[in-house]
Amino acid sequence: MSSRTGSVGRIFRVMRGKPLGALGGLLIIALVATALLAPVLAPYDPIKIKSSDRLQAPSLNHPLGTDDFGRDILSRVIYGARISMLLGLGAVAISTLLAAIIGILSGYYGDASTPSCNGASIR
User: Residue ranges per domain, the chain?
Assistant: First the structure.
């Protein structure tokens, strides 16, 4: 029990020491939670067209209003978080894979005199 309390205390100390980093971490957690809980959080179906609700101004029923087709903008933003997360993670995965391949090949075939290894050579 004391190790758990110690780790929670350590987290709070880091958050107090680096408030902008803590804010960024909380924003990332909120974005991931929104993406994962989109079906629960979205008040309306983001794809359903309802022509009677076209171009409504923000109201209690539609906090961000509706678009040209009567779709709720808040629901579309919430579901858009899923697509944003997927694209971001895909870009990171692809770039990490390519960087690992280039690094492995440079380390295996290259030496300090090759142009691809000049900046990262260890002597």
Answer: 1-36, 38-123
**Secondary structure (DSSP) of 4-49:** HHHHHHHHHHHHHH-HHHHHHHHHHHHHHHHHHTHHHH-SS-SS--
Q: What is the DSSP letter of 99?
A: H
Residue type, position 57, single letter:
A
**For residue 66, which of 87, 51, 83 has the smallest C-alpha distance?**
51
pTM for the model stands at 0.68
Contacts of residue 112, Cβ cutoff 8 Å, sequence gap at least 6 = 118, 121, 123
Residue 1 has what pLDDT?
Answer: 47
